[in-house]
Amino acid sequence: MRDLVLLLFCLALGTGLSAQDQYQRMAIESSRAWLDIDYVGDRHIGHRLDIHLPAEGEGPFPIVISVYGSAWFSNNSKATTFSTGLGQKLLAGGFAVVSINHRASSDALFPAQIQDVKAAVRFVRANAPSFDLDPAFIGITGWSSGGHLSALTGNTNGIDSVSTEGETVNIEGSLGKFTDTDSQVDAVVDWYGPTDFLIMDTCGSSFSHDKPKSPESSLIGGPIQENPLKCLLANPIHYATANPPPFLIFHGDQDPLVPLCQSEKLHDQIQRRQAPSELVIVEGGKHGPGVMIEPYYDQMVAFFQKHAMGK
Of 42, 83, 106, 203, which sees the most CB atoms within 10 A? Predict the structure, then answer.
């Protein structure tokens, strides 16, 4: 079942089956790339990241971290940052691109995935001089489940752990050698990420997220409707950092897998906090097709450039 859902999500994204080959060819052609860096130090495939620098220009370069979409089922899909074309656009815009793996839900339940992302941010910030990176600006972007993790990263800037109704979730974690390093990000671009698990089926999804083996149920370790507190703690809209970064959110109004309401709720929640957020609703856009395309990539790059200049 998991393999089938993962295949459906990948096909919806249009990533194709030769992503790794395409990515490796690009890496070979680039003279400034580091591949498969173990950002935790435990040799887990889910704890690897790649760094690419722009082919032109003088560093240090501002940073954008990319988090792939896989329904949280994959621990090794960082190559899709480039097979989708997103990574190339960021490089051309003058950004260093850090594409990261994270543990799959079959490796570990939530909050392992957000702890991985936080550990990757800390590693990049702590080791920035070694890779010609400028830690003054670290943006983050991701699509689908990667959008969820990107939004959660931004909404938990400076939040170590949260207790709700007697249950505590450790967001920051203690992975890697750089636990004293700041994990905050400076800007977020979220591509149609889930934000409120419990309402996905009732607000427009043609895919049943309530089922026991759905991506969200697999992430938290049980059927989502039977575990509302675990869902709450995994939802980006549950968190309100005191230091919110600006958000840019893209979502197709015909998305059959992650309904538009998910981004609308996130956008509304950020605005209620009087934090900067822009929601771009793509008419006719689906789960990837029609949304992750050049005009919106250009808007993403311009958004990151604007906020990088401010830093």
Answer: 83
